[in-house]
Every structure is written in C-alpha cells, then in structure tokens.
Amino acid sequence: MYKIVKSTDNGLDEMELDRLEKGYWLDIVAPSEDELLEIAAATGIQMDFLSAALDEEEKSRIEVEDDQILILVDIPFFRSNKDYDTLPLGIIITENGITTVCLEANGVTADFGSHNARLFSTFKKTRFLFQILYKSATLYLKYIRIIIKRTDELEIHLRQSMENNELFNLLDLQKSLTYFSTSLRSNSIVMERLLRLRNASASQHLIKVYEEDEDLLDDVIIEYKQAVEMVEMYSHILNSMMEVFASIISNNLNLVMKFLASVTILLAIPTLISGLWGMNVHVPFADSPYGFAIVVCLAFVVAIGSALFLWKRRMF
C-alpha cells in the first residue's frame, strides 16, 4: 500500500505512480513484492533501499549512492498501554522527491497530512527530512512520559497488593524502555552521521541544508539526547523498583512462613500433651474426676506460655 502526494498552494495533491512530478512524497506502508517492483521501476530507487525498512531486525544507518540516500531510523510504535515497540523507518531521498517506507502504519508519517499541510513542504526535502526525524524524537518523548505515568500507577497498586499481573505489566514496561534505549542510541549515531553528511560534497545535491534548517536539525539532536537521558534514567529507576519489589515479595514470603511455623508449634503443644495422656497406660490424674479438665488447662497454659515466648522473640 502506498500513496503519493505533492505540496501545493492549496495543500496536498495526490499523484499517480506513472505520473510522478518533482517534489513528490511517496509514503509506502507494508508493500507487496509487486508494489516494490513497480515503485522501483517508476522511481529508479534501488530495490535494497526500498526493502531495507521491511526487516524488523534492520539496524539504523545511512547509505549513500550517487543519486539517492537511504536514512534508516527506528521509530516508536504503540501497541497497548503496556507494550511499546520500535520499527524501522526508511527515508530515501532522490533528486526528484522523498520516499518513506515502513512495515506498519505509524504515528510519525501519519502526522503529515492534509490537516497540517501548511507546516511542511514536500519540495523542501531536507527540511521535510528533519521534520520527520523531529516528529520521531517527540513521539519517543511522549511514549516515555506515558510509560513513566503508567509505572507510577503500577507502583501505587503494588504498594497495596503484590499481584502477579501488576508485576508482569511492570516487566513489559521495562522491556519497552530497553527497546527504546537501544533504538535511540542507534538513531543518535545516525544523527551524527547526518551532521557530517550535510557538508560532504558528494551528497550536497541531495541534502541541501539552509540556514533556517540548522535550528531544526539542532532541535532534532537535542530532542534525541533528551530522550536518551530520560530512557536511561527511568530504566535504572525501573530496574531498582523491580529489585525492591522482588525483595519485598521474598520478605513477605518469609514473614508468612515464620507465622505458619509459629502456628504449627502452638498447635503441636496441645497435640503432644493430649497424645501423652491418651496412651493406654497409667498416667497422672487417670483416677481423678477432674483429670480431663486438668489436662486441658495444662495444655492451654503451656500453649499460652509458648505464644508469649515466641511473641517476645518476634516470631509471632
């Protein structure tokens, strides 16, 4: 599936693949093999550039050819309130336009549409590239804040009751932050390469950085650095929380086992006494009419004494 648009004075105009005009934006989402072949033939983009972002394990990088540049970055992806992931997004810049490729519909490219067409221009490829990267960075920050808020809610619930479901949710959020941390580090390397690439003579005809674009690129780098710092900080906090709650669960288990051991001791005392007086031999108070009451009182007194002893030793 793909769509082709071009910025005009009235917004965005859709185009056909066989009638491409300079300044187009080709947005490709989960394409079929036939669509990739058709797009490659119409645009002249290398097939390996088009298919690079369709591999979930593909790493962030930049590849430069004479007439096209591939910028591959990881973007955040929302699956549920406890499950966040990252997906590769390929941005291909050619002489005539810009192409984006992703496995699934995402919040980065979806934010550029007719509703905000005046805020970007498909003709200004470099600025549009920086706007896409900036949107990716801000989306990371947005999801990180949601994860932080969700973590705080889970912490409150865990303080009240240690349920496995809450711990599993906390583990899912921890995994999401780990994915974010890995992807953000890779993206930061791409940003550094992009800084060097803008001054390279071999790519200046494809990436032209104007003075007004410098501030936007600086904002992108700052946002990525902030996202990296936030992910690292809250990853440490989340790891500490998991360790603390694991210790609390272990301590609670020890308390329960200690309580049950104390109860077992208290129940064993009257059982032992009643067992001794229940033997088929001559025992004290066997001929007394008050023998049963005396044995019961003796068992009760010994049990109370044992309970006091255990309570003073903080075992009950």
Task: Explain what the structure shows.
By secondary structure, the protein is an alpha+beta fold. The longest helix is centred in the last third of the chain and has 67 residues. The protein is built from 6 helices and 7 strands, in the order E-E-E-H-H-E-E-E-E-H-H-H-H. Strands 2-1-3-7-6-5-4 form a 7-stranded mixed sheet. Helix 3 runs antiparallel to helix 4 and helix 4 runs antiparallel to helix 5. 56% of the residues lie in helices and 16% in strands.
Q: Unreliable stretches, pLDDT < 50, 5 or more residues? A: none
Order the strands across the largest sheet as they lie in space.
Answer: 2-1-3-7-6-5-4
Radius of gyration: 34 Å
| Number of helical elements | 6
| Class per helix and strand makeup | alpha+beta
| Biggest beta sheet attributes | 7 strands, mixed
Number of strands: 7
- The H/E string reads EEEHHEEEEHHHH
Ends distance: 68 Å
On the 0-100 scale, what is the average pLDDT? 81
Tell me the quaternary state. single chain
Global outline: rod-shaped
Helix coverage percent: 55-70%
Per-chain topology:
Layout: E1 2-8, E2 11-14, E3 24-29, H1 33-43, H2 47-52, E4 61-64, E5 68-80, E6 83-94, E7 97-102, H3 125-160, H4 164-197, H5 211-277, H6 291-312
Helix pairs in contact: 3-4, 3-5, 4-5, 5-6
In short:
By secondary structure, this protein is an alpha+beta fold. It is 56% helix and 16% strand. It has a seven-stranded mixed beta sheet with strand order 2-1-3-7-6-5-4.
